[in-house]
Amino acid sequence: MVKKAVIPAAGLGTRFLPATKVQPKEMLPIIDTPTIQYVVEEAVDSGIEDILIVTGKGKRAIEDHFDRNFELEAHLQEKNQEAWQDAIRRLADMANIHFIRQKEMNGLGDAIDHARHHTGDEPFVVLLGDTVIRSAIPVTRQLIDIYEQYGCSILGVETVPREKISRYGILGGNRISGHIMEVTDMIEKPSPEEAPSNFAIAARYILTPEIFRAIEETPRGKNNEIQITDALKILMHREKIIAYKFEGKRYDIGNKLDYLKTTIEFALEREEFAAPLTAFLREITGKRKGKTGAGSGPVNG
Ligand code: UTP
User: Which of 113, 124, 210, 218 has the fewest CB atoms within 10 Å, i.e. the most exposed one?
Assistant: First the structure.
């Protein structure tokens, strides 16, 4: 049974500077809801009751967001805004949320290693704190169902077009069905020619406790960090690993363009914004035809 979730949210978010100088990127709102709230809700909607969030320097806002705020609750009650009072209170009661600090940014593998004592000898799900996935059945639930079938580590994957293959960790192996593959090969950011498939690792994992031994043995890799993909390569030779192509759409808010696209897409689906926003977008895109953009800082994604 998978009962615990780990949400790494300690990264520096350098692709989103200067917004992330003092503010966690995981708290960047998609309209009015911080990204990490969607991630926590996905875990809770999947039946997870225990969540460990890996935070770091400058990430206090995440802890405060999932804590009670009695002053705000009292204020909302006074103003007869009970619906908001309930919504704010619910954030603190959704699950047992724990926090641990990653003191040095040593990569995703190291962030996950911080869960070692919390998860003990149980399998656990990992949800990246800067990535929302929307689907009819929560993706974490889909992964848990596959785990219950295979009893091994499960990597959530999506298929990526050929021209984007070189941005992802790509998996190769033996297809069990259109959606499931036993993993025998893993290449970080391959050229389309070297890629063994178009299955890309995508922000959700179920890992067995054996991953901690693999992380221990993983040398520093790209950016001098402990990369989870390198640890998974070690694990792959010891245990079965299944790749599962989930049903759902992924929104990575860690880079500015995808964040903007996500905000617009989510807003267009909200009744109060759909019509005025569509009209506004038509108006400004009409005016901008033929013009090119000018940035305000270094381009970093
Ligand atoms: P990213 O690689 O996208 O995050 O990690 P980053 O390092 O903050 O991004 P940039 O490249 O500097 O802009 C995906 C998730 O893993 C967490 C991040 O917080 C993010 O939610 N992470 C990453 C950690 O918790 N610790 C790390 O050392 C690295």
Answer: 210
pTM: 0.95
301 pLDDT higher than 70 = no
Query: What sections of the chain are H helices per DSSP?
Result: 35-45, 60-65, 70-78, 82-93, 108-113, 116-119, 139-150, 210-216, 228-236, 256-268, 271-288
158 Cβ inside 6 Å of ligand 1: no
Instruction: Summarize pLDDT for 67-118 with one digit per residue, the tens.
Output: 999 999 999 999 999 999 999 999 999 999 999 999 999 999 999 999 999 9
Domains and CATH numbers, the chain: 4-254 (3.90.550.10), 255-295 (no CATH)
Ligand 1 center to residue 22 CA distance, Å? 15
Using a 6 Å cutoff on CB, does residue 123 contact ligand 1? no
Q: For all residues of the chain together, what is the average pLDDT?
A: 94
Regarding the beta carbon of 106 and ligand 1, being less than 6 Å apart is answered yes
